Amino acid sequence: MGGGIFGPTMDLMRSEPMQLVQLIIPIESAYRTISYLGDLGLFQFNDLNAEKSPFQRTYAAQIKRCAEMARKLRFFKEQMTKAGLSPTKSLRSGDVDLDRLEVALGEMESELIEINSNNEMLQRTYNELSEYKLVLQKAGELFHNAQSSVAAQQSELEAYNTNEATTDSALLLEQEMTMDPSKQVKLGFISGLVAREKSMAFERILFRATRGNVFLKQSVLENAVVDPVSGDKVEKNVFIVFYSGERAKNKILKLCDGFGANRYPFMEDLNKQFQIISQVSGRLAELKTTLDVGLAHRSNLLQTIGFEFEQWNFVVKKEKSIYHTLNMLNMDVTKKCLVAEGWCPVFATDQIQNGLRRATLDSSSQIGAIFHVLQTKDSPPTYFQTNKFTSAFQEIVDAYGVAKYQEANPSVYTIVTFPFLFAVMFGDWGHGICLLLATLYFIFREKKLSSQKLGDITEMAFGGRYVIMMMAIFSIYTGLIYNEFFSVPFELFGPSAYGCRDRSCGDASTAGLVKVRATYPFGLDPKWHGSRSELPFLNSMKMKMSILIGVAQMNLGIIISYFNAKFFGDNINIWYQFVPQMIFLNSLFGYLSLLIIVKWCTGSQADLYHVMIYMFLSPTDDLDDNQLFFGQKFFQILLLLSALAAVPWMLFPKPFLLKKQHEERFQGQSYARLDSSDYPPEIEPHSVSHNHEEFEFSEVFVHQLIHTIEFVLGAVSNTASYLRLWALSLAHSELASVFYDKVLLLAWGYNSILARSIGLIVFISATVGVLLVMETLSAFLHALRLHWVEFQNKFYVGDGYKFFPFSFASLGEDDE
């Protein structure tokens, strides 16, 4: 576990050795120091100003300045997204002056806001004129149709009066023609557009508000128009409302405003109509040209911003993170230095000191920064050096809990045991090849895919690509052992050991089969598949195999607890936890594993259920036919007594020894030398008071009682839990067999190409959807549970916290 200060130990078994460091940095070199430490990415700062609010800290103004620049960059990104542009991905090297960048961002924001404002105003005017042109055209058509209708009615009336004139009608006509023009009623009208979905309600309320004293005429527009107010495309109708009197006019105007109807003036004179339409058309052409020029200018500006956007964004985030870190530092009493505290790996000492010296030289500071290692009893953070292969397995373990500082890391074993347990449940080398091909696609294109934004499920699969690759490789291995390729057996390693006794026996049954050759060299003999005894044989084999794997992994967990206790110098846990746990587990289930192996080796017909049950119920009875080896009865009694003795061995001694240990430590501290303290004054009182806390014997005893009961019951339940390996392996095999026999072979029995095609499609869909997706997820979750619960609870504390160094490499897209 050494490694020293020359380089990382690259040891995944235990956390890198960490140290609490105090840095005393002159103010003139503080910025460069933090910047170089951020480039290094191996120092985790502690917040020494936790009691202060963000606004009371030293560099609050600089953070506010960076936040304002970040806001402008977000505004630019929103504008680029609306324009369908994306920032250039490549980061250009080179320093960016923050003051110049701030000025440039302000100028570009003002210019872009002005361009947007002008474009919005011009676009609104353009949309209003477009609507006005439509109103002129449609209203002109309405007036023309109305005038034509009136002229036709007058000609009919004149013809009628000429042919059938009477004295009364002549007098009435004469009275009408001689009427004073000043007494005639003058009608006004209002024209405009209203949304089609509101037109019926508009007409109804208009009629009610004026008590029917209006005349409304509407014309439907074929195409949707852009609304000047909202900017959205809306289907609208052109309307003309005829009214009489100012009171009715006021009501109509209020209703138009309430329904969002846009009003436009209209002239009855035909010549004026043509004149206005030509003016509006000319104005529209001018606005279109102006808008195109404005949009081109805006696009050029956004492209210029997009070319520099990634670099600017990174610089602003970097500056903000530096000042945020500086705010975590404490100002000393002279106001000339900043004091920082934090954690770093021991191997990084030289690199950090080199960074401090470089910052001092680059900032022309007269005083160098001081690097001082502090003594502390606080638990350091946990730091494992991982790569792209081991990081996914480490994440599986961290999802359960981060390892306590320097306790054994389960991910070392998980790299092998996790894909292996998955493969035991997923054993089919055809399915394994499919998984391997899928994950190789991710691995070969990882550089391209890592820079793209993927969907949630795809991103999850891409992140675990090396886990899936290991699962696929192990699945191919166990599939070869099970001799299953999409449930079909192959004679890959030679011919079957069995043959027909005579010509009458069939290939699909073991009846009449005899052993004619040497045992099949690797995996399951292909003759077992399809035979009558296939299921009983596989059931027995996989069930016993699951117990052997489970007992082996649980023993591994207990053995790791021994190495943990030895590493931390905890002899109590070695003698009163590790030893009795090993005795208890192996006296029962280790003995069961031994019986399984002996039975396989000797070919005995002993009933192991009977042996294990009567080992507890009648340990002194003779075994008769169930005896597997000489002295088995005496050996079973010895194991039973050992298991019974292990329970009080786990329960009683440890609490009393812990109490005695606490009392001895307390007495030793009471008579300690005055100069024996190696801790700084600010740390010592806290540690002494912590060690002088009263020992709660009852609490420790109850905790040990719970731990003992949990282990004793867990030894049974955890062993039974490993039978899921047998159950899921059997389910996977039978599902694959059903899909092959009842879908593919059944369809292939027909001579129709259509039936065969449908059968093949259904087989592929069922294989991919059920076996390669759902079964993969199911086996993954069961393997995860076996590691988290059955394996890790034997040794893993998992109450640590991760090492999060200050690093510019971790600045993500959404970090603020």
UniProtKB/TrEMBL annotation:
Major location category of this protein: membrane
GO cellular component: vacuolar proton-transporting V-type ATPase, V0 domain
Pfam families with a match to the protein in the record: V_ATPase_I (PF01496)
Record membrane topology: Multi-pass membrane protein
Compartment(s): Membrane
One GO BP: vacuolar acidification
UniProt protein name: V-type proton ATPase subunit a
Organism in which the protein naturally occurs: Salix dunnii
Lineage, highest ranks first: Eukaryota, Viridiplantae, Streptophyta, Embryophyta, Tracheophyta
